[in-house]
Amino acid sequence: MSSSSQVAESWISAFCSLVGHEYFAEVSEDFVEDDFNLTGLQSQVPMYKEALEMILDVEPEDDYSDDEDEDEDEDLDDDDEDMRDAAAYRRQERRHMRMASDLSVMESSAEMLYGLIHQRYITSRQGIQQMAEKYEAGHFGACPRVYCGQAKV
């Protein structure tokens, strides 16, 4: 199969396949997109909107518009190209630093939000069914005690 025909892995699938996350159920995107299932989570998660966009693999909206850059450039005289270049460089550097720090906060917020969504999902009918299938498959291991007879945990 060629690499162009392969479908990119979703954030949810990638998150659940990480080491230490094997007990998470893959929550369906329909469940995540339903506003009722997200009630009250906005106040608990920093950068909620961005975290939700990350979970759903939606391209984030750019809050910092290029129009502001153009307005700043128009304020400078045409003769001051060096100043304009330096200002553009500083602006680009600030944006890069902000994006790097925001990305780590967004990732941790997305992980927290997914955990809270997962908590609600596994109490739903689909979630209980998915967790029961994992239990039946022995996904959670077996009791190490001798008299348990390798009972599923």
Automatic annotation (TrEMBL):
GO terms for cellular component: cytoplasm; protein kinase CK2 complex; UTP-C complex. Residues 58-86 are annotated as: Disordered. Transmembrane segments: none annotated. Coiled coil: none annotated. GO terms for biological process: regulation of transcription by RNA polymerase III. It comes from the Eukaryota. Pfam families: CK_II_beta. SMART domains: CK_II_beta. GO terms for molecular function: protein kinase regulator activity. Residues 58-83 have a biased composition (Acidic residues). Belongs to the casein kinase 2 subunit beta family. PANTHER family: CASEIN KINASE II SUBUNIT BETA. Tetramer of two alpha and two beta subunits. Regulatory subunit of casein kinase II/CK2. As part of the kinase complex regulates the basal catalytic activity of the alpha subunit a constitutively active serine/threonine-protein kinase that phosphorylates a large number of substrates containing acidic residues C-terminal to the phosphorylated serine or threonine. This is Casein kinase II subunit beta. It comes from Aureobasidium melanogenum (Aureobasidium pullulans var. melanogenum).
